[in-house]
Amino acid sequence: MMFPRYNIFRSQMRKHGLHDSWRFFFRWRRSLKPGASSVRDEQPWITYKVIDYLKGCLGATHRVFEYGGGGSTLFFVNRVAEVITVEHQEDWFRILSESISKAKKSIWSGRFVGPVKGDLVPVPDPSEPSHYASADVPSKGSNYRKYASAIDEYPENYFDCVVVDGRSRPACIMHAIPKIKKGGLLVLDNSDREYYLPKIRKAVELQFETVIDEFGPGPYSQDFTKTTVWRRK
Questions:
Q1: What is the value of pTM for the model shown?
Q2: Which of 27, 55, 97, 116 is the most exposed place for a label (fewest CB within 10 A)?
Q3: 189 CB burial (10 A radius; 0-12, 13-18, 19+)
């Protein structure tokens, strides 16, 4: 079955104008086998280039906050000093909590913070951080203000890395910016989605420099996606 996967991979590389992604091919192919999963593999569901970058950047003294947990949570708890996760899906949070408990990782603190019924403005715009909205269909008629602001209880310049991979991502970025220390990382998954960055990009670029911002292969998906990494100036 190598050749169908090979052709898909090559087609995706051509689509996105990539020339240096073949080194990820065998990892990508293995991730598409039946039974593979982010939690079981203890692997973030982001591009391989960013996964490898985080492996090289994060160590035993670092603190990580993530909006949206999963395989990334297990990836981080095996590498850093503290991991804080906020999750909006209660059932998934229960599964994640059980996985972390079995792994006996005391450095993890997780919270379920679901959406709150009711829009904050008459016509919410998911790209506007202050609307705390999501384009996700099940989220219609709800807001994520409590979810996005969960990071506010921590001091400024506290985290070495914040990963935004949940709901209402522009709002999450807005709250995350002051919590990231100098030299720290802000990671946004699926950054190719048009409504994530238009109204928060300027605030990010004032204080961060871009490290990675490109499409690439990632686990568990035939289609290449984009994960963006910024570093605090």
A1: 0.95
A2: 55
A3: buried
